[in-house]
Every structure is written in C-alpha cells, then in structure tokens.
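Notes, Module 5: Reading structure tokens.

Key idea: the token line is not a picture. It is a compressed description, and you learn to read it the same way you learned to read a sequence, by spotting repeated patterns. We will look at two proteins. The first is printed below with its tokens.
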Amino acid sequence: MSAAFKKAAKSGQRPHRERAQPAARRRLGLLEKKKDYRLRADDYHKKQNALRALQKKALDKNPDEFYFKMIRAELQDGVHTIKQPKDEVTPEQVKLMRTQDIKYVEMKRVAEAKKIERLKSELHLLDAEGKNPNKHVFFLDTKKEVQEFDIATHLDTLPELVGRVYNRPTIATLQKETLKGATEPAHLKKLAQQRKNQYDLLKQRIEREKAMFVVAQKIQTRKDLLDKTHKVKVKKETTNSPAIYKFKFQRKR
C-alpha cells in the first residue's frame, strides 16, 4: 500500500528540469548534460581499453612466432585479403573431368530425347504451329471435272469438317454413330488450350535438347584440344556450333 502511495505522490511532483546554457556562454553551444557525459565517457574508456589490450598483445608477442596466414594473406588497398591457392591438376586429371562433364551432359540430353519421343507419341504433331501443311493431291480426268470439283463431296464429309487434319468422319459415320467426347464450346476451348500447352512444352524440350547437344560438342572439342598434336582452326565457335580444328595426321604405331 505504501509503494502505491509513493507512486501516487510522485505523480503530482514538479518535474525536474536541467538548466540550460547561460546566456553569457551561449557561444559555446548546448550545455552538456549528464547523459551526454556518460555516452562520451563510455566511448572514451572503451577506446582506452582497446589500446591497452593491443599494447599488451604487442609486448607479449613472440618474435619467432609464425603462422601460415602470414604468407597466405596480403594487403590490397588497405584490406587484408587471403590468397586463393591454385588448383594443381595434371593433364590426365583435366581430361578425366572433361569426360565426366560430357557423360553428365549426354545423360541429360538422352533423358530429354526420351521425353520428346514420349510427347510426340501422345500429340502426333497433327495441328502443331509451324508445321508444314500436308498436301493432298486429287487426280481428275477432264477440265470439266476440275471446275465442278467439290472437296466435301469427294471426301464424303460435311463442309465444316473439311479443314480438319484429323477426326474427319464421313456422313455415313455421322448418321450411324452417336457423338462421343466433348461437344460444349467451353470444354473444347479448354482442350485446345491444354493441347497448345503440350505443344509449347514439346518445343521447349526440343530446344533444350539441341542446346545440350551443342554443349556436349563444345566440351568434346575442348577435351580434344588438350592433345599436343599440331592443329589449325578451320571455323570459329558460334552459339550453335563448336569450333572446328584440323589436326595433323600422325600414323599410329
């Protein structure tokens, strides 16, 4: 109860105010308060302690002391930088690493090729964009037949189905069989979008497989250049093909 009374009594007390800089000393700036002095004093003592610790460390240092960072580090633009060791590899080791790289890239390329074949077997590429249109040639005997030729009548189908490259039933089939599958426009649109996405995926995989094939060729070319045989560059390297070199013929013993 007494503690609560003391807090209530202090709430009505006059707030303590520190005096300001006298008018005669206003040119010296703001008057330093106790909290400002504490911050300045703590910073000063922290720096003095650090200097004393460094002095003690320098006095206790063994002149014969050695550790490897003395030769592995150097000063660059005022900053200590550790020297990166060079990788010591033999030419045989480099060839082996290049071979491993080729095997990995070839493995990924074969996996992409299998995925491409699987997609092609599902899509059949009947209405893919960019595909060369198929040609269907009809042979007629006379010019009159050419002028009176009607492709829908000749194929025995509806005029609306003439433009299809697949699923083009005849009139007799339409009369006998009932419609199967999706017939609503919304469902047909959804199926068309799914088919388009599959074709886009197939196109991306084909481009990826070609890129991997080029990478494998470039790695093989760099591996062949490790040979000491005299060679002449015939064609420069491009983004789609490796460089071509002509090696001097050497008869194998």
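Here is the second protein, with the sequence above and the tokens below, as before.
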Amino acid sequence: MVALISQENVVALVSRTGRELQRYRKGRRQVVGCIPYRYKIGDRTSLEAPEELEVLVITSQKGKGMLFPKGGWELDESKKDAALRETIEEAGVRGTVEGKLGKWSFKSKTHDTFYEGYMFPLLVQEQLEFWPEQNVRQRIWMSVSEAREVCQHWWMKEALERLVNRLTERKLGRVRQIVGSIQCIGGGKSDL
C-alpha cells in the first residue's frame, strides 16, 4: 500500500543557511519576521482586551534573550513567504501571514551593521511537533504584557503594539458597522 502525502503538510527539518541568497538594500541586510498569535477563546477575529491574546516568543540561538521569529529575506521568496519560512524554522508553527505591521531600521547588537526589518502577524493554525530549530530554541506562549517585558528588541516591541492596536481596531470597526446598520434600519438616530 502506498500513502500519498501532500507537500504542503511536509516541513523540512533543516533550516536554510548561508548568505548567498540574502537580500540587501543600500548595504543593509533585509530581515523579515512574524509575531505568532492566537486567541485564548476559540474562533475570534478581533480583540476585546489584550488579555485575550497570546503570542509565541522564542529564545535566541545563544540563549541570551527572547524574541519573535525572524531571519533573512532571500532572493527567491516574497517577504511573506520568507516570514512564514523563518517562523516554521525557528518556532515550529504555521498559519496565516497577515498584512505587514511595518518596517524598522536597527543596528545589530553583534555584527555592528544596520538592518531593515519587516514584521507580520501570523495567526497560528498549527503547532508542529518537530521543526528545524527545536534543539537550539525554546518556544513559549505568553500574554502580551509578558512579551513586552521579555522581548529583547525595541522594534519587535513596537511591532507587537501595532498588532494589538490593529486587532483592537478590527473590533471597533465592526461595532461602527453594526451601529451604522442600526441607524440605517431605523431611519433616524439610535440611542446606542
């Protein structure tokens, strides 16, 4: 008997290495990353309060701090594809990569060079049992406030704030739509 396995369900257990395919812009290495998140309460799509949200942080390879998954954006992939690849390699999760949170310029603490970093939210749909960097990193789900405390990069903390604001604004947008619909149905003003 032969079992067929879809390629989309297979994860390579080896991380990409080397800088041959790395993207640079004006001498700055281009990096991309994700903030993996999930709602504590099931099928949510917006945020009532930051306490409803959990984010996944990972240890740095050298074990000197916590951060969100990120790495080099390579010539043969889009930003979103690179962000998802890095998140699978470093944190062992997959999901939906959403719209860019922003772009940051920062100086590497170890290489004395400047980088440009792009961050994306990733709504986690699957947590893998095995992933490429499981032997060199730990992954930990935590609250937004805990992540603010432990994340070692200022620009990642800023990206986290943008994510929380975006998810909160989704909720406010839906409330405005509902209130607008009630006003239209009633033909006048509502007490809401």
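Summary for the second protein:
- Residues 2-7 have pLDDT under 50 and may be disordered.
- The longest strand covers residues 114-127.
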